[in-house]
Design a protein that fits this description.
The protein is of the alpha+beta class and about 300 residues long. The protein folds into three domains: about 120 residues, Alpha-Beta Complex (Nucleoside Triphosphate Pyrophosphohydrolase); about 30 residues, no CATH class; about 150 residues, Nucleoside Triphosphate Pyrophosphohydrolase (Alpha-Beta Complex). The mean pLDDT is about 95.
Amino acid sequence: MADGPPLARTTLDRAAHRRADPDWLASAWQRARILVVDIAGGGRALVGPQTDRPTLLLLAASDVPEDALGRLFLGVEPDGTPVFAVDAPLPVLPDTRAVSLRDVGHLLSDSDAGLFTTAVALGNWHARHAYSSTTGLPTEVIEAGWSRVDDGGNHVWPRTDPAMIVLVHDGKPGPEGLCLLGNNAAWRPRDGVRRFSCLAGYVEPGESAEAAVHREVTEEVGIGLDHLAYAGSQAWPFPGSLMLGFLARADPAQPIRVDPTEIAQARWFSRREITDVLADARVEADAGLRVGLPPPSSIALYLIHRWLEEA
């Protein structure tokens, strides 16, 4: 398992002091590496043909599509190279393929993971803030993509919505130790698989992340927690969340009472069962369906691996 959540990795110096320096930015653009991200097309970017360790394709300024939106300054790489992102339909180039961050985030290098995550997060924010929420006036990009302003001088800055996600377990070691996973009411079975994941929800105004964990677990499955530990965080820019990950302990003897508007099914799984699912062995869900787990780029699967390794 990686040292931290898959989309928490980066080598980028964001060099925020350069965002308000138009002369430096203009010069940096000419020597930059530029990531094209198609926000309207699902936040996809181009990678090379390899599948085990894909590499982002970054362009020179002269190769950027003419219809690209904005110049979003992402930062400076350790070798001093400036990196920008633009929002545009992806060019058709040989020996490349279009991928989403969900698809390949866990496979990318630390450098590429940081670039792609930041570009998608910024691009999604710009796509949703063409108008000021205060005045209703159109906004335009300033500060190299890190702010927008309307004609009245009212600024808006990128927003990140904090959300908690928790793996609830029984605290017991060994293959028969249990964790509690839920199937969201919005997730439909696909290809004979019912997906189960950690419990999650947004942190509400005036609430701590820890309080949100207790509240969401009680609301979604009706059980109480007797221990809570922070495990790490990562961006989840779909469109703009920061996932705060926790491990929590609970007594599996408590009855599960799901909120059907949120959770279609929740159940305890043993380490043995989770290990089987990860090995692609069939574990029955219900009605002829097999159990599936969260995607590899998610912090949810990271938390599950943490629990497996702490046995």
